[in-house]
Amino acid sequence: MKILVTGGLGYIGSHTSVELMHQKYEIILVDNLCNSNEKVLENIKKITQVMPQFYKIDLTDKVALEKIFKENTLDVVIHFAGLKAVGESVKKPIKYYTNNLISTLNLLEMMQKYHVKKLVFSSSATVYGNPGNPKYTESMGRGQTVNPYGSIKSMIEQILEDLYASDNRWCIAILRYFNPIGAHESGLLGETPNGIPNNLMPYIMQVASGKRKFLNIFGNDYPTKDGTGVRDFIHVVDVAKGHVKALEKIKKEGHGIYTYNLGNGIGYSVMDLVNTFERVNGVKIPYKITARREGDLAEYFADPTKAKEELHWETEKTIEDMCRDSWNYEKNN
Ligand code: NAD
Ligand code: UD1
After folding, report:
1. Rounded to 5 degrees, what angle do the CA atoms 27, 99, 240 make?
2. 10 Å Cβ neighbour count for 169?
3. What is d(CA 171, CA 118) in angstroms, rounded to the nearest whole number?
4. In this structure, are residues 162 and 186 in contact, taking their beta carbons and an 8 Å threshold?
5. Which residues line ligand 2 (CB under 6 A)?
C-alpha cells in the first residue's frame, strides 16, 4: 500500500511518517519546506533505517503535483500540508485562503483524476467554535469559527462532505486534533517554530532554554480550577498513531466519511503544564500573569469515545511524557 503524505516533513507529518514506516507502509512525502527542512528526512531515516521518497513541491503548483500522481500508483493520501499560525491567518487571510484551500482543491482534483479515493485529513478542534459545553463531541457538529485558519478547516470539512455526497466511493477520515505537544522520544523529531512562538509549549521551551526571560500566562481569572486556561494536550506520537488507526479504518470500510476527535479527554490548565514541566525536567519557568488573549476560550477538551470505540485508539502517553520529550528535543536542537 502506497501512501502520499503531504506536509510530511512538518511536525505531525514527520511523526506520522515514522509510525507508518514502523507498520511497513510505503510512503511518499511531499513538502515545500516553507515550515520545515530537509534535515527531517535524515532524521526519519535515522529512526526507521529507511529513507522515504521525497518530492519538494508546492501543492498549489498543479503541474508539479500531477507529476507525482503520474509517476506513482497511490492508494491513500494523508493531507497535513498547510499554514497553521492562527494569529498570522488573521493578519494575512489571503495568504492562508490561497495556500490552504488551493492546495487542498488541487490535491482532491488529482485524487479524483487518478482514482485515489482514500483520504485522511488534518482538521482541528477549532471547528467546534464555542459550543458552550467544554467537552467537545463529534455529534455537536461544526460551530462559528473565529479566525481564517479555523474557517478554512471548517470549509475543507464541508468540501469533503460535498465530495463524498457526489461520489460515495470516496473513503475519508477527518481527524480533529486538540493540542498536540511533545516530541519523538529519540529527540530527533519535534516542533521548531519560526520567530516568537504563539503556542504554549513552544514558548515554555524557549523560556526553559533561556531564549526568552519569562512566560506570559494569558489570564488567571477564568472560571477554571486555578483560573488559567484549560486545554486537552496530547502527545504528538499518540496523534501520529491515531492516523495509522484511521488508515486501517478507511482500508476496512472502503467508503464513507468518518470524523474523529484526537484528544486525551483530559483538560490540563496552563499552570498544570508549567508545574509538570518544572517537576519532570528540573527547570524553572519564570512567568508573569498578563491579560487574557483575545479569542481564547476558558476551557475545552475532547470526548475521545468515538475514536476509542471505532478506531480502537487510545492515548498512551502522559503529560509527564509530553513535557519530558519536548524538553529532550529542545536540548538536542
Ligand atoms: P507544520 O507546519 O509543522 O507542517 C505542515 C507542513 O506543510 C510543513 O512542513 C510545511 O512546509 C508544509 N506546507 C505548507 N504549505 C504547503 C504547500 N502549499 N505545499 C507543500 N507543503 C506545504 O504543521 P503541523 O503542526 O505538523 O500541522 C499539520 C496539520 O495539522 C496542518 O494542517 C495543521 O493545520 C493541522 N493541525 C495542527 C495542529 C497543531 O497544533 N500542530 C492542531 C490542529 C490541526
Ligand atoms: C491554538 C489555536 C487553535 C489550534 C491550536 C493547535 C488560537 C486562538 N487557537 O489553540 O486554533 O488548533 O492552537 O494547538 O491560537 N497561553 C499562555 N501563554 C502563551 C501561549 C498560550 O498563557 O504564551 C495559554 C492560552 O491562553 C491557552 C493555552 O495556553 O489558554 C493554550 O494556548 P495555545 O498553545 O496557543 O493553544 P490554543 O489557544 O488552545
Report:
1. 35
2. 10
3. 5
4. no
5. 86, 124-126, 149-150, 179, 198-200, 203, 215-218, 229, 231, 270, 293, 295-296
Q: Are strands 171-177 and 118-124 parallel, antiparallel or unpaired?
A: parallel
Mean pLDDT (whole number) for 240-261:
97
pTM attached to this predicted model = 0.98
CA distance 69 to 278: 48
Beta strands 135-136; 2-6: pairing state: unpaired
CA of 284 to the centre of ligand 1 (A): 30
Strands 215-218 and 230-231 turn out to be unpaired
Q: Are 27 and 52 in contact (CB under 8 A)?
A: yes
> Over 90: is that where the pLDDT of 181 sits?
yes
Whether the pLDDT of residue 195 is over 90: the answer is: no
Distance 199 CA to ligand 1 centre (A): 14
**Residue 55 is among the residues annotated as catalytic for this protein:** no
- What is the rounded distance in angstroms from the CA atom of residue 99 to the CA atom of residue 95? 6
Catalytic residue, from 11, 25, 55, 149: name it: 149
Residue 303 has pLDDT above 90, yes or no: yes
Taking the CA of residue 228 as reference, the ligand 2 atom at the shortest distance is 30
Closest CA to 2 of 108, 111, 77, 75: 75
Question: Taking the CB of residue 140, how many other CB atoms lie within 10 A of it?
Answer: 15
pLDDT digits 0-9 by tens, 81-119: 999 999 999 999 999 999 999 999 999 999 999 999 999
State which ligand 1 atom lies nearest to the alpha carbon of 84. 34
- Minimum-distance ligand 2 atom for the alpha carbon of 84: 4
Q: For residues 168 and 260, what is the distance between their CA atoms, to the nearest angstrom? A: 19
Q: Which of 88, 108, 74, 80 is nearest to 15 (CA)?
A: 80
Report the alpha-carbon distance of residue 190 to residue 331 in Å, rounded: 11
**Residue pair 235/321 in contact by the 8 Å Cβ criterion:** yes
Query: Strand, coil or helix: what is 44?
Result: helix
Per-residue DSSP letter, 163:
H
**Spatial CA neighbour of 90 closest among 143, 61, 126, 135:** 126
CA-closest residue to ligand 1 atom 35: 122
